[in-house]
Amino acid sequence: MNQKTPSVTRVNCGELCKTTDCTAAEINLLHAEIGDLLPNISIGYERFIKNPDELPNRILDLLQIAAYVFCGDRMANRGSRDSVDNNSWARSLEFRIPVLDIDFWENEKTKKALICSLSFMTGDRNFSFVFTATNKNPAEAKIKQISLFSKEYSDLDEAEKTDVVLFSGGLDSLAGIVQRLNEHPDRLICAVSHKSSKSVTHTQESIISKLNEKYDNKIKKYGFECCNHGGLKSKDETQRTRMFLFSAIAFSLCNCYDKHEFYVYENGITSLNLSKQADVINARASRTTHPKTLGLLRQFYRLLDPAFNIVAPYYNKTKAEVLEVFKIYNERNIISSSVSCSSSRKKRGQVPHCGCCSQCIDRRFSVYASGLEDYDALYATDFINAFPDDDKNETKQRLYITLRLANLEDISTQEEFLSKYPTDITDMIEYWQNSNNADDKFDEIYDLVCRYGKSVIDAATIMRNKYDDLTQTINKDSLLGIISERKYKDTPCFNRVNAIDGILKKAIPDIFQKEKPKNERDFNDKLHGILNVQASFTREYPTLLFGLSSYIADQAQGNLIIESKYIRGKTTPSVADKGIAEDIVKIPDSFGVMFVVYDPYGSIINPDEFAKAFETKRKDCYVRIYR
Description:
Structural class: alpha/beta
Radius of gyration: 27 Å
Shape: globular
Strand content: 15-25%
């Protein structure tokens, strides 16, 4: 598939496909044979009634739409993660899907609710749907066709006393099931799981089997398959629409058995997923169980069932607090059976966790904070003592981000918290549970973030006390190294500037030793070549609005802007002084800025005082002088 992200990606589904070819601009998804066309995706919902073709048309449509959206999401290329402002990471998707109940799905209220849910959940620019009427029942198996449903049958014999719970096989959903089994011994559980891979399915079945042995077979697992088929490879593994797929089958089960709610067990910090770094925007931050995502899904499902609800019992808990469930009910030994890792492609051998992804890092901090580290699973990488020198030091950056948020960097008060995350907080408050008062909701959210911070610091302290051997040298590429140097106290921008400064200190004198730049533009061009060795910087981009005029950065990468000043023989330092002062006012506060001043003749008498005069004027402003 072409890697360029088109303005709109069209996704043709089912009988609307004329081919099964997939390009960047057009994706064709087929789950059943049509003439000579073979299916390229698998959809296999287990039958939850004996004759699924007798299900209401809207439910059959919902299941098909959810499956196609999930597969289309994974097939639509997001473009480069390194693009400035990550604009290409957000896509515009147009789904063309045949439906049985055309009047319901073409209704503007229905479309709006569906689009709002998916747009926020994924962070994409736009979703649109073109529905066409069909009389082909997707649940009816015919010659050369594959039914939407597999041959497996999961009947809820005692539906009236059964609760529907989403179950991924991770710690939070496992804790939720353990808690329900103990607090509601008279009720049964239907655990809804996605068969995303053989290893995940094995993990889920193993956990359910262990629990059923102890709790008198009170759990019935409902599994469904929805994946690529016939060699079709996914372009995006973030699976941001998986919650829609999960919730669609959970709602359909509830609808079939006259139930009006299902349960989502996910800790509050993971659900909020604050933009911990300035350049983590759009779909980079997962919103699968965000309060607004669940709220928008509630609104959508209430168009099909006005009394429906989605219950999130752990919405106001940290992961460390969730883990207390395993202590309370003496289920510590089952912790190692759960799998939280999101990087299945990067794991080595049979170890269930990579140890480097955000989920693995959050898990390890949480088990240490709750004193359950001896019961945890195995990790391919032990970031406490050494982490890999991976691409762009991603493991190190994740650890920095975690520790910086834990230290309440720039959010030591509620006022700072509101100032730094105004949009995030507005989204949370509107859909926050248990209170109608906005001030009370804000208090709860901020208190949750503070409790999370304390749990991370407590865990880091335990790790340091346990592993810091005073007779050994600390590996700087480890959590112990990060803790000992306290560099997480510095801003990400400061760390990036220091890394760049280390390169420029050597490169600039070497390059211009024999021949000085012709002018400032020539200096900028050569500086661009140096910077691109370290990372992908753009030249004279982005263009930023400043009042009624515009401002063009000399160099930019993510949320760091680099401005260069060249003090030539007859140029006085006051020219650079004036240029820096003008740029500081124009550059938005959301950007960090590094001024690279080339002063080969030593015109600036006191470099430290020169730099300090500007660095005190705004946060994340750095002036570095080279000779």
